[in-house]
Automatic annotation (TrEMBL):
PANTHER family associated with the record: IMPORT ATP-BINDING PROTEIN (PTHR24220), LIPOPROTEIN-RELEASING SYSTEM ATP-BINDING PROTEIN LOLD (PTHR24220:SF689)
Xref: PROSITE patterns: ABC_TRANSPORTER_1, ABC_TRANSPORTER_2
Example GO molecular function: transmembrane transporter activity
Protein's name in the database: Lipoprotein-releasing system ATP-binding protein
Amino acid sequence: MSRGSGHAQNGNVVLELKDIRQSFPQADGGRLEVIRHADLTLRRGEMVALIGPSGSGKSTLLHIAGMLEKPSGGEILVDGQATAALGDDARTRIRREKMGFVYQYHHLLPEFSALENVVIPQMIAGETRRAAEPRARELLERVGLGQRLGHRPGKLSGGEQQRVAIARALANAPGILLADEPTGNLDHHTSDAVFRMLSDLVHDLGVAALIATHNLDIAQKMDRAVTLRDGELVTA
Ligand code: ADP
Ligand code: MG
């Protein structure tokens, strides 16, 4: 595989959304068309902001991109593989092996330490504890929590909890990171710090990231932005 930029750009495409549509049944018997048309190509190492007003369908599009929800139409290619016709098991396997998720709320396991929260997903994926621990330590060090490995989530600040959630999302070395308002619960200063850390990590690891955010200052710092407007995904 080619390295660097310029040549073989398509070789760097990790996620493609093609003419994605999504509608939901409504109480009056009609359907709410949330996404009418969304095309998106994500390349290795790029960080793309997904913006749009509340209710515009950002979370819906992220769920579809992460194969947590089936669209009413369109195709999703992961590393060039079409997924629409795959069964649930195959979709789940692709999601587990190739994708990491970060949400607005951290959803860490409260009874386990920061280290264990990053070890456990690797063990679920079939790693031994012995193999999982060094990677968990390294990730937590990289998010600035090397001194907090043994802390439970309840003993960490909001920003620190999100840092653990980011380390956890990257625990299984996914090529794709999908984040839904990852700094939405944090104050301005903490948001900036967590975003900077996330950006460094994504670029260092060569992960492709799609990040929904309300925060236009943060969106501007990403490599590019796309906007959901009236059901269409447009270049911002
Ligand atoms: P955003 O994340 O941009 O705020 P969402 O994707 O959460 O937007 O929601 C977009 C629209 O789709 C909203 O009107 C929401 O009520 C609707 N919606 C989302 N999921 C469902 C669902 N499972 N069933 C019905 N309507 C839904
Ligand atoms: Mg949302």
